[in-house]
Amino acid sequence: MAETDMAVDIVSAPARSPKLLVERARKSFRQASGAEVSAIADLSFSVKSGEYVAIVGPTGAGKSVLLDCLLGLKYLDAGQIRIDGLPVENFVRDRKGHITRIFQEDRLLPWLSATDNAAFGLQIQGVAQAERRKQAARWLDAVGLSAFKDALPRELSGGMRQRVNIARAFAPNPELVLLDEAFSALDDVTASRLRLDFKTLAQSQQTTFLIVTHSIDEAIFLANRILVFGAPARLMAEITVPPQAWEDRAVSDRIKDEVRSLIVAGARPG
Amino acid sequence: MQAAGDAGRDIVTIAAVSGVPYDAVSARSPRGRSLLSRTFRAILPFLVIAVLWQTASLFTKPYLFPGLGSIAKSFWAILTTWELLSQGLVTWLRLLVAVSASLVIGIPIGLAMGLSATCDEFLRPVVKFIMGVPALNWVIIVIIWFSTTELRIGFVLIVLCTPVTVFCVYDGVRSIDRKLTDMVLAFGANPFQHIRLLLWPYVQASAFTAAKLNVGNAVRTVIVAELVGAPLGIGKELDLAKNVFDMPTVLAWTIFLVMMALFMTQGIECAERTMLRWRGESHGRN
Predict the structure, then answer these.
(1) A197 contact residues in B (CB cutoff 8 A)
(2) How far apart are alpha carbons A56 and A41 in whole angstroms?
(3) In sequence order, what DSSP letters do the residues of chain B get, joined into one string?
(4) Are the beta carbons of B279 and A110 separated by less than 8 Å?
(5) What is the per-residue pLDDT for A267?
(6) Do A109 and B198 touch (CB under 8 A)?
(7) What is the pLDDT of residues B130-150, one digit of tens each?
(8) For B197-253, how does the pLDDT look when each residue is reduced to its tens digit (9 = 90+)?
(9) Would you call A265 helix, strand, or coil by DSSP?
(10) What three-state secondary structure class fits A226?
(11) Residue A6, pLDDT above cutoff 80
């Protein structure tokens, strides 16, 4: 009986495994002076499928390095990252476009129209031109840019370019979307409008979101859970954001105070 | 997606408020300036030189400063006499082949140097060395190496133009925004996609710059190469004219050569404007 239980447990393990698992991750860099600087120090956390998890922390907490590692652009020195139970390198290699990143700056290719920029991830996946343009047009429509499908990036405002950036991240129908300070380069009015549109759009998708941000307000607004990082990247605390916390001033203020004090405690000296 | 729809209406408002109005752009554009005034300013220096030249021709021997009329007559003869015009076309064809070949050879080398530190370390000294050899030395070398005239001229032109292409493309690759490279790789692009979708559009811009520089390079060099025993081409015609002190013909061919270079550069710029429309024509103005 015990053997049978174990067998069932092993078989069902992948189904119950988290979408993203970061386990005892370490990463350091050697500076030009030869000194070794730790970017990620013994970091462990997990994200369940469909969760919206925000990562906040002081500057230099290795958040962007972690995102690079999640995309297979950088490798850990120790520990592991698993997505759907697969080592991240295998996941990225075998499922192109299943993780996408919304960058702080739009990073649109200046020679491509809004449609072709939005279709970029699909092009990398090898989707036929007609199909990828159709899907890109649908996403541009969803982000409110249907009238600017043929516009070049230089013909769009900053907010519009960021909308194309969002459409590009959603178009390949990703399983995991990484937001890297996605709204911080915009003015307050455009950023809050875009955050709202993003949340509406995100809620219509069966996708998991990892949101790296400096803004505690943004974390409370977008996420179900906030991971507070110290510098170098290590998990200092995990805070669950209650539903509608954003609308309850007292709750959001309490979370903000808590997160702020943790960030101050976790910052690198100097 | 009502929210997105609403946002769409908002975006139109944002664009209308913060976008640069097209009328303002056209009002500031060079197109708005008087064409006549610009043309006059462009030809004024040449008019001054022409007046000075014509004045000098009245007081000197014709083989030193021939009159403008005799130069124009020689130039017209070049344009209307097939035997002469064909010599110009032969030189033009050599320039065209050399500039094109330097792109075909130089672009992959520049790309390789830009992408790989090992290639860069290995090839850079070689390219720099070749670049340092004067054109006349190459002419002497090819006379010893090759017996075919076309091969001699072609080699000299290509060997002088290719390093320029290599360094233009190399700089183009190196100047690509690292953030764009990260974006392309973040979407899982393989090396081939990386080159095709990101590097190639940037390299095109560098290749156009190289082609324009090489037209000037090649025009300056082709005559030197043709003067040394070419049976056809402007170099041969200049050699013949020199032997009989026919200064009007020498000057007519010189003008022909300069105009040929200008037309080639104009053609390249025209292709550049078409292919690189995305860059706009702001010239630093926003």
Answers:
(1) 3-4, 7
(2) 16
(3) -HHHHHHHHHHHHHHHHHSPPHHHHHHHSGGGS-HHHHHHHHHHHHHHHHHHHHHHHHHS-TTTS--HHHHHHHHHHHHH-HHHHHHHHHHHHHHHHHHHHHHHHHHHHHHHHHH-HHHHHHHHHHHHHHHHS-HHHHHHHHHHH---HHHHHHHHHHHHHHHHHHHHHHHHHHTS-HHHHHHHHHTT--HHHIIIIIIHHHHHHHHHHHHHHHHHHHHHHHHHHHHTT-SSSHHHHHHHHHHTT-HHHHHHHHHHHHHHHHHHHHHHHHHHHHHTGGG-S-TT--
(4) yes
(5) 65
(6) yes
(7) 999 998 899 899 989 998 888
(8) 999 988 898 999 999 999 998 998 888 888 876 889 999 899 899 888 999 999 999
(9) helix
(10) strand
(11) no
What does the pLDDT read at residue A9? 35
Alpha-carbon distance A195 to B87, whole Å?
68
CB A39 within 8 A of CB A24: no
Closest chain A CA to residue B16:
A157
**CA dist list (Å): A241 to A21, A73, A251, B80:** 20, 31, 9, 85
Amino acid identity of residue A264, one-letter, is V
The interface predicted TM-score of the complex, written ipTM, equals: 0.81
A118 to chain B: closest CA residue: B187
Distance CA A55, CA B160 (A): 56
| DSSP track, A201-212 | HHHTS--EEEEE
Residues A144, B193: C-beta atoms closer than 8 Å: no
CB distance B4–A143 less than 8 Å? yes
Neighbours of B87 (CB within 10 A): 24
CA distance A259 to A58: 11
pTM, two decimals, is 0.76
User: At B225, which amino acid appears?
Assistant: A
Interface A-B, measured as beta-carbon pairs within 8 A, has a size of 98
What's the pLDDT score for residue B282? 55
At residue A106 the predicted structure's pLDDT band, cuts being 50, 70 and 90, is: confident
Q: Give the span between the Cα atoms of A207 and A184, in whole angstroms.
A: 22
Contacts with B189 from chain A: Cβ below 8 Å: 124
Helix pair A158-170, A188-203: axis angle to 10 deg: 20
Nearest to A212 by CA among A91, A104, A87: A104
Question: Which residues in chain A touch residue B280, judged by CB atoms under 8 angstroms apart?
Answer: 154
CA atoms within 13 A on the CB side of A167: 33
Render pLDDT for B19-53 as a digit per residue (tens, 0 to 9).
434 444 444 555 556 788 888 888 898 899 999 99
**How do residues A220-251 score in pLDDT, each as one tens digit?**
999 999 999 888 888 888 999 888 888 888 88
A270: β partners = none
Provide the token pair at A228: 């507070």
Q: Which amino acid is at B34?
A: S
